[in-house]
Amino acid sequence: MLNIVLVEPEIPQNCGNIARTCAATGSRLHLIRPLGFDISEKAVRRAGLDYWHLVEVADYENLEDLFARHPEAAADLWLTTTKAPQSYEEARFSPDSWIFFGKETAGLPLTFRERFRDRCIRLPMIDQARSLNLSNTVAVCVYEALRQNGFPGLLDTGEMAD
């Protein structure tokens, strides 16, 4: 199962869209604090996120907490950053990869990117563009990882199939 990690996400609508992508694809969602929004059951219910129950969500105090609880993540991770030297298409995702995404205003911490420099990937875009929306970047990466692994556990036809 893919692991989507949002490091200090700030915008609740992005997190909601990403949670929906995780729900539709059977991916886990990991949230690194501080969060720019409330994820309590009451807040989620009030926001009308009727798919939240389909998402396995875990939250952590910081990156060190995540790696302490999931040491296996360090062996199979990818970091998305506009500063990466390689395209996401060069990544070889496993079915259980951990894909990290930084906060909307600053991205992933420099020390973290440097620690895993050879695992940093980016989505190609024109020079004048600063970045894509976080939830769009997550969707592109999740579906590329799933495509590389044959879309495990996902329906490959719709109701129009003969």
Could you walk me through the main structural features you see in this protein, from its secondary elements to its overall organization?
- With 162 residues, this protein is an alpha/beta fold.
- The protein contains five helices and seven strands.
- A seven-stranded parallel beta sheet has the order 3-2-1-6-4-7-5.
- Helix 1 packs parallel to helix 5.
- The model has no long low-confidence stretch (mean pLDDT 92).
Q: How many beta-strand runs?
A: 7
Largest sheet: spatial strand order: 3-2-1-6-4-7-5
Q: Specify the structural class.
A: alpha/beta
SSE order:
EHEHEHEEEHEH
H/I helix tally: 5
Molecular shape: globular
Biggest sheet details: 7 strands, parallel
Instruction: Point out poorly predicted stretches.
Output: none
The mean pLDDT is 92
Distance between the termini: 30 Å
- How many whole angstroms does the radius of gyration measure? 16 Å
Helix content: 25-40%
Q: Report the sheet-strand fraction.
A: 15-25%
Give short descriptive properties of this protein.
162 residues; alpha/beta; seven-stranded parallel β-sheet; 5 helices; 7 strands; 30% helix; globular
Give a summary of the structure in a few sentences.
This protein has 162 residues and is an alpha/beta fold.
Task: Please outline the helices and strands.
Layout lengths: L2 E5 L4 H14 L2 E5 L8 H6 L10 E4 L2 H7 L7 E4 L5 E2 L10 E4 L8 H6 L4 E3 L11 H15 L14
Parallel strand pairs: 1-2, 1-6, 2-3, 4-6, 4-7, 5-7
Helix pairs in contact: 1-5
